[in-house]
Design a protein that fits this description.
Helix content is about 40%, strand content about 20%. The two termini are about 15 Å apart. The strands form two sheets. It has a four-stranded mixed beta sheet with strand order 1-2-3-4. Strands 5-6 form a two-stranded antiparallel ribbon. It has about 150 residues and is of the alpha+beta class. Strand 2 and strand 3 (about 50-55) form a beta hairpin. The chain has one domain (about 5-145): CBS-domain. It has helices at about 25-35, 55-65, 70-80, 85, 100-110, 130-140, and strands spanning about 20, 40, 50-55, 90, 115-120, 120-130.
């Protein structure tokens, strides 16, 4: 594996995003309908505002269900809470020319699982630990068994 490879070579470019004012019912449906674990939150010109991880979303949903009167309150919470209220603001991000090695170092040092990739203040991709593992296995000639 060449750790000097730019993240732009392996990042996901077809992104599923949310806007800051999207209700959590929409965020929930994005997670439910797609095989993703992170949703970048962007403004109308695709500037990165934050990120929502599926793990954090599910933990918060679980705590809301425990701390409230049940299903009807949870449904109201999904309908009335916005993405901006639960997103991680100012996420660490990479430039497209940053290296796979740098991404791996950030993942290991911070226990992150995804990093948005931003070019000229606009979200252009996302790189995940899965992307790095796949890249490593492909370069080691091990994908035949996956």
């Amino acid at each position: 594996m060449n750790i000097q490879t730019p993240v732009s070579d392996i990042m996901t470019r077809r992104l599923i995003t949310a806007s800051a004012d999207d209700r959590l019912i929409k965020v929930k449906s994005l997670f439910d309908e797609n095989n993703i674990h992170h949703i970048p939150v962007v403004d109308e010109i695709d500037q990165l505002l934050g990120i929502i991880s599926k793990e954090d979303f599910l933990k918060l949903s679980y705590h809301v269900s425990l701390d409230t009167g049940g299903k009807s309150f949870s449904e109201k919470w999904y309908d009335n809470t916005t993405a901006s209220e639960i997103m991680s603001k100012y996420p660490v991000s990479l430039d497209p020319e940053d290296t796979v090695g740098l991404a791996a170092d950030i993942f290991m040092a911070n226990k992150f699982h995804a990093l948005p990739v931003v070019d000229n203040d606009q979200l252009v991709g996302i790189i995940t630990t899965h992307d790095i593992l796949l890249f490593a296995f492909q370069n080691a000639g091990m994908t035949e068994s996956l």
